[in-house]
Specification:
single chain, alpha+beta, Aminopeptidase, binds coenzyme A
């Protein structure tokens, strides 16, 4: 059974394997290999300490997916964060992405974040469909910013979701 929960440092190696396998597909992420184990460990510990949103999907502690909203810091910007997520190949299309996103969005709200944004490669139609299901709207585009060897140049789409009118200032 796959559970969705906040990771601990014991999940670092498996988290690394999961992120690395998705990055190495070279079709979803802008990165082509995982963050290092040290970076993942710091990420988990810092987010646990601060109560910031990070969750994994795991089967007997084998990580098969993750999601996090990385908050901006500093006065004036600490009301929002950037979503990153992924589900390992072989586990997709089973509702894990929906469960991860529902969990991380609710944790982001609980942490006081009122706006979430993300960047997604324009050909990643399954991710865009998932985000739209959760009320994210397309608000921008940066052209030609993904240019991996052997692939056509690709735009990235900006999507965002706000829980209050942050444009009234
Ligand atoms: C995008 C991703 C997170 C979706 O996770 P998932 O576990 O496969 O998704 P789910 O099974 O929960 O499906 C959720 C919704 O996503 C959309 N979706 C998923 N697979 C899809 C597909 N092949 N085609 C179109 N829409 C799809 C649908 O809206 C679906 O809802 P529905 O089944 O009720 O119609 C997953 O495909 C993934 O990790 N891909 C690689 C990494 C990645 O793209 N990360 C995001 C980078 S911005």
């Amino acid at each position: 059974m796959i559970d969705i929960f906040t990771p601990d440092v014991k999940h670092v190696d498996s988290f690394y394997e999961c992120m690395d396998s998705i990055a190495k597909e070279r079709i979803h992420f802008a990165i082509t290999s995982s963050y290092t184990r040290g970076q993942i460990s710091s990420w988990i510990m810092r987010f646990r300490m601060k109560g910031w949103p990070i969750v994994i999907a795991a089967e007997d502690d084998k990580v098969v997916g993750f999601a996090s909203v990385v908050p901006e810091t500093g006065e004036g910007r600490d009301h929002w964060g950037t979503l990153i997520m992924g589900v390992q190949d072989g586990y997709r299309g089973q509702g894990i992405g929906k469960r991860l996103l529902a969990s991380v969005v609710s944790k982001a709200q609980a942490a006081g974040l009122v706006r979430i944004e993300l960047w997604v490669r324009e050909r990643n139609t399954s991710a865009i469909a998932l985000y739209q299901r959760f009320g994210f709207q397309v608000t921008g585009r940066r052209t030609g910013c993904t240019k991996l060897a052997g692939q056509e140049v690709e735009d990235e789409i900006l999507m965002e979701k706000s829980y209050e009118n942050v444009r009234t200032i």
